């Protein structure tokens, strides 16, 4: 069940059911507070009408996310009931209908949430940004994909995939906003070409705002089949937090003594366990050496690709032609799925 609506108010019933229909999701309407407890935990979103907030709160339902108080203009009593219910917000109708519409749209998209894959270079110049672009380009041929630039000192991911002149929202504009961000609004707002969207910076003065990233990433995952996050190697505590938010982490490293030594230090800093793996570039050492030094399994090996620089300079991106990058992207995404 997507939405549980607890109300006896005809106006609240009419407003919410209409919004649910527009979002393409189902709603169960319950007019008896006592009966609502049976499905309280199962619903993706619980909307408690202000007319029944007091009796529902008196039942002491278990705390859970995704509870909102909706209905008449809130007064002091409404806020007390919202606190008792552990509600995330109090939404006045009809003024709050646009906000509620976005929340309902997110519920519909949450039925098939995307995956967040982080890519970071174990050492400088390893090719992590190139791999991140290749993964996003490959997946965008099949489903909506978002490529997020998490490296303030990088070249700008929109430039690498030929989208620097495409209009759309960049990091700077999102950092100036506050509150909840809808998945659909983010998907349609960023620079986009077909099913590939890119979130990067618009100017030379760049700083990754982690609080903004905390708002962006959940919305990004709800609105896309895959989100690829290109991470800055020298991120400190910010890097650790962003890595922890990733479903999968790919660490790109050359199979050389200096490269693996630097990669081992990065792995020790981020402390990533579980779904993390090495993507090895050409060097003098083997996969067994790489795994022994870093403690991570080798999940792919990517050879040098001819014509890569020319393809990027022409605005085609790294995946313009068949080659090692295309094969690696295909295999890595199949493994992640």
UniProtKB/TrEMBL annotation:
GO biological process, one term: negative regulation of cell division
GO terms under cellular component: cytoplasmic side of plasma membrane; cytosol
One of the record's GO molecular function terms: ATP binding
Domain spans labelled Rv3660c-like CheY-like N-terminal: 7-110
Domain of life per record: Bacteria
InterPro entries hit by this protein: P-loop_NTPase (IPR027417), ParA/MinD_ATPase (IPR050625), Rv3660c (IPR022521), Rv3660c_N (IPR059050)
Name listed for the protein in its UniProt record: Septum site determining protein
Taxonomic source organism: Nocardioides eburneiflavus
Lineage: Bacteria, Bacillati, Actinomycetota, Actinomycetes, Propionibacteriales
